[in-house]
Amino acid sequence: MKENWDILFIKPCRNPNENPRQLTPEYIKSALFNNKIVQINLDNCSIQRMEMLSGSASLKEVNDVGLLPLVNLLNSGLVTLSAIGINEMPDCRVTKAKEAYELFCKKFWPGHKDDQLATQRIYDKDSIQQKIKFSDLDDGSRTVYGAPYISILLIQKIKLKYNNCSPEKQFEFYIYGVINLLNIISGFELEIAKYAFWKLSNKEINQLPESIKKRRKDIKENFTKSKSTLNKCQEFAFDAAMDIHWLSSANFAEDLGLSININGKTLQLDNWVGTNDYKLYRISLDIHSVYFQESKSKLLAVTREKYLDNFSYWKSVDDLSNRILKDRLNQTIDTNNNLTTKIDFAISYIENELSKQFI
Length: 359
Known about the structure:
The chain has helices at 25-33, 44-51, 59-64, 68-74, 91-108, 139-161, 167-182, 187-196, 202-207, 210-224, 230-255, 278-286, 312-329, 339-357; strands spanning 8-10, 13-14, 36-42, 79-82, 259-262, 265-275, 287-292, 295-302. It is an alpha/beta fold and 359 residues long. Strands 1, 3, 4, 5 and 6 form a five-stranded mixed sheet that branches. Strands 2-7-8 form a three-stranded mixed sheet. A hairpin with a 2-residue loop joins strand 5 and strand 6. Helix 2 packs across helix 5 and helix 8 (187-196) packs across helix 10 (210-224).
């Protein structure tokens, strides 16, 4: 079996000081005892693994593509499954992905039933467009994915336009930029930005503790790697926004108290993300939501090794962000007024600024 190959399951929120939760048959049974049902939301990576299976695939082939842990969980108790990762795919790939998902469920999850109330993505079967363009999304989708998409684009723009500025100044441009553009600060993206602008020499990188070195590399690969054209920036930002969405949407769904009716019994959804992206999984261990005031979306916990005290950069960006967040906590912040219009304006502005950097 390849290293870092098997599907993993992320619980994006946990109690303060709680170790990462493990999705097991025992957990699934415990959830049902508490009138909850585990829902596994599959990301794009895992659905692509299903596409690798033939129509005559056996459990050995399922194991070969890293999906056997999913099969074992599906057949261990009452759970629900969602192919949410299809939303990340261009229209030309949706048919194949849906067929692979449905075949997988039919062959390896006997006895399952389709939810008649489940939403279905509308798509153009004849499309030949290979990538999703954010501007082509409908109003609702642009609103949902807009904030993280803007954050990642803004990081790209600042790293290019203000390359000669200090890392501290670049982070300052970022935090005031998201406030001016959207008046929304996401804790997750804020933490990503701190790593994005942290500049180190090769010697300093080599001296980092392994935990920090790996986190820094994972965040760069998924969220902050510099791109060489506007199109590549847009594609990278969309992929990154979807990664962020997988984690945040699970928390929002539970905050909304979403439920499902099974055989006349209403069960609250206990949302998990299923992914074969080990970088995203490792990041979620170090940056994740914690329960706060009965919400799963209001408070973020981050990992801070003592070693980071050796860098004045970290004291500077933490002090600035903590001061701004504290000030905003005592203010009435209006984030809903014409949000879609704000998102469209912000993206148009940032992409125009980015285009100037590639002339």
